[in-house]
């Protein structure tokens, strides 16, 4: 799980993706996504979970849920946001 940009999917992974049941996630009609969020919530011991398609989006949601427009955040010089998101 080092990086999703280095992992090459196996034939079984590609088959699972091709055969996955899908729906509109905005209207909560995607059963596969819903199962993933429920599993993530259970494994982390949380009431619910939200899947986002990228680390950038996850970081943005996290920062915006704690900060207002114009606020500043403190980052370590080895943090992901600082190193990889032009923090």
TrEMBL record:
Cofactor: pyridoxal 5'-phosphate
Keywords assigned by UniProt, alphabetized: Pyridoxal phosphate
Entry keyword annotation includes Chloroplast: no
Family, per entry: Belongs to the threonine aldolase family.
Pfam families: Beta_elim_lyase (PF01212)
Protein name, UniProt field: Aromatic amino acid beta-eliminating lyase/threonine aldolase domain-containing protein
Annotated Gene3D superfamilies: Type I PLP-dependent aspartate aminotransferase-like (Major domain) (3.40.640.10)
Keyword Cell membrane among UniProt keywords: no
One MF annotation (Gene Ontology) recorded for this entry: L-allo-threonine aldolase activity
GO cellular component: cytosol
PANTHER family: L-THREONINE ALDOLASE (PTHR48097:SF9), L-THREONINE ALDOLASE-RELATED (PTHR48097)
Any single biological process term in GO: L-threonine catabolic process
Aromatic amino acid beta-eliminating lyase/threonine aldolase domain ranges (all copies): 1-87
């Amino acid at each position: 799980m080092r990086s999703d940009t280095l992992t090459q999917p196996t034939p079984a992974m590609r088959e699972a993706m091709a055969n996955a049941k899908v729906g509109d996630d905005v209207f909560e009609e995607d059963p596969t996504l819903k199962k993933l969020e429920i599993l993530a919530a259970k494994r982390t011991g949380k009431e619910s979970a939200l899947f986002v398609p990228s680390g950038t989006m996850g970081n943005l949601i996290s920062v915006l849920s704690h900060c207002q427009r114009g606020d500043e955040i403190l980052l370590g010089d080895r943090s992901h946001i600082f190193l990889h998101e032009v923090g």
